[in-house]
Amino acid sequence: MSEAQETQGNGTYDVIVLGAGPVGQNVADRARAARLSVAVVERELVGGECSYWACVPSKALLRPVIAVADANRVEGARQAVTRQLDTDRVFARRNRYVTDWDDSGQARWVKSIGADLFRGHGRIDGPRRVTVTRDDGSQRILSARHAVAIATGSRPVLPDIPGIDEARPWTNRHGTDSSTVPVRLAIIGGGGVGVEMATLWQGLGSQTTLLSRRRLLPRMEPFAGELIERSLTEAGADVRIGVQVTALRRPERTSPVTLTLDDGSELEADEVMLATGRTPATDDIGLDTVGLTPGSWLDVDTTCLVKGVDGNWLYALGDVNHRALLTHQGKYQARTAGDAIGARAAGRPMDDAAWGDHATTADQHAVPQVFFTDPEAAAVGLTAEQASDAGHRIKTVDLDFNTAQGANLYADDYQGHARLVVDLDREILLGVTFVGPGISELLHSATIAVVGEVPLKRLRHAIACFPTVSEIWLFLLAAYQRD
After folding, report:
1. Which end of the chain is more exposed for a tag (fewer CB within 10 A), N or C?
2. Which helix or strand (DSSP H or E) is residue 105 part of?
3. Do 142 and 183 share a domain, yes or no?
4. Are 276 and 160 in contact (CB under 8 A)?
5. Mean pLDDT calculated for residue range 431-439
6. What percent of the chain has pLDDT over 70?
7. Per the domain annotation, does 98 fall within a domain?
């Protein structure tokens, strides 16, 4: 970005936002809608992790892999799949969606809403004050009349494994910005990043080994990880559950990586990727100047105000509050908090009761998530175990997707599973999980049912079109009534 593209304001704003990813952009947009002046501070690329190293590039890369898998599930289309994916074109597609890591378009958008963009490292320096240090060492002092919003996101956790420095492991960033397919790739971690990256790189032709201490996707219903494990194995990946890496060794930059496992065996790979969790990017943003611990997750109230800070001015949105490390959930928090900032600035009453305009109630009750594996895994609300642990009296309803004719027309021998978690006392849905090809587009209907607490007696009148995959709703509700 050229120097001329950075706006220099007068130093005092109604709202200062640390972080210009999707979360920061949304809170800035809502604050501007409330006619508040806004400064946005970004130390990397405007658009953040999601735009350049996470959601956007990973889905751009995964789509060709899944498209081929979908074609192979349909007689007639299967015969048209005659060669390997063109990896150069797959990577070119990714590059197009991340705009070749050029953030000038998103920087222009920040300016278009009337916010001022400051490039550099933003650090809180006492109440309502932020110091921005630029690459050349120069500094700019900003002051906020009403709010500072922290939207700095998270970074990968690097476990304490002997030899990790010499191994030079990939993180999610390498996993999505690499344009070279390793012959052998070992992935450590069986959560969402791990299973998506295993799907991606196995599909691009790498012999992939996925290592996980626990079952895959441990925060979802158990069948989700089981179906994905089976599918990855059938695709040629080596999936090992219940194993731990105790050491890494890579004596030369160009030599393979040797992984030592806790059973004493060794595994060799050309690259190793760590998908072992995230930690908040709050270690050097000045939390200590307002009585908070650097590097900590930030505890917030329902309006995303940080607890333990006097004056109702510090907000934490997205990954940093650890409620749900998902872009869409962070954007929801940002929209809600932006409206709350506007209301507080204008002296209007707060609507922060459950499901109010200034309450992030969905964080506790209806977080939707999708993993773009093959098959896809999607869920919203509580699992059966979570619901039971919370004291609900529940019933689960389970069906294979091939019960619905629409699923069988979508893919020959459709393999997938669905579960409803029903609150028996109120006869509403507490949670829904789908696993199967193409089911990500079903999730919003489930989210509406959970958020709206739609009675099952009413939900049965929501008729699914024939013949679509969404017919599974009819069979799930019928199965509940029969039981």
Report:
1. C
2. helix 104-112
3. no
4. no
5. 97
6. 98
7. no
